[in-house]
Amino acid sequence: MAKMRAMVVRKKGGRLETEERDMPEPGREEMRIRVQACGVCHSDLVTVEGLFPNVEYPRVPGHEVIGVVDAIGAGVQGWSVGARAGVGWFGGSCGYCRRCRRDTAFACENVNAVTGLTSDGGYATHMIAHVSAVAHVPDELDAVESAPLLCAGVTTFNALRHTGAGPGDLVAVHGVGGLGHLGIQFAARQGFRTVAVNRGRDKEELAKKLGASDYIDSAVEDPAKALTAMGGAKAILATVTDGQAMQAIAEGLGPNGVMMAIGAVGPLTLNSMDLLLKSAAVRGWYSGTARDSEDTLQFSKLNRVASMNEVYPFVKAQEAYERMLSGKARFRVVLRMDG
Ligand SMILES: [Zn+2]
Ligand SMILES: [Zn+2]
Fold this sequence. Notes:
Number of strands: 15
Bound molecules: zinc ion
Structural class: alpha/beta
Largest sheet: 7 strands, mixed
Number of helices: 11
Distance between the termini: 24 Å
């Protein structure tokens, strides 16, 4: 029987270890994908450390996947073997339940799946995905370069386009890291006056190269005051992983401004008076559906948005994972399957 290889977590908190497995066959409404590249996302911690209830082990993490369709199960339409395919955090939806019919397919009542968490993900040569979870990938996009667009990319792209900001509006991207370096590119190319906010000056040049027109050093300047002096932000994309930093910028919103929290930082203390006087809002956002991923990929192709990655051969997944956890990677970490 044909074999595949995967980097597997055998128990909660375990290391990523190589495992040879029988090649799985796609079931009904499923496809098998030959993985070319998979990003290493901070949320893979949820799988490795068992931070969701009932994570089953062994488990293969990975939800920033680009590859090609390798085998097609019964009941799948619109796909052919060899087609380029991308899979993100979203594990699929049924299309007919109440949530799916209300355009909130994320919360599908029938398919409760998260790639690399409730099913095996992309730290592998092959994986199985529900057809509704798979995004078409444009030919022009390189698999290794673009894999992070399936999570970090769709999250920032989607959050920004749901803030209500329009061309020319002041939009702050808080944090110039794995999410923020993509957020700046998307914000600038969506036509916003893009302000990068980060501690220190060492990322200023890069932020401007990526499209930021202004830069606020939050170590020496109160970012809320600085944004207010610029007229107040229509949107703040809060990618930082520090709650105090996130709440410190919220008052930089302008009238009807929206802060999108996409970094998970736990409880936030917010000034309700400031929010109500401005009719401002703080919202959370994560990821998107396969359709959202396709929008992200198309936009990235047209506007040349690219993730900056450190690339590891897939057998070095443990090393790559530790590098991602260190927070020192510039900026995303990606596994390539052929190396
Ligand atoms: Zn992710
Ligand atoms: Zn559904």
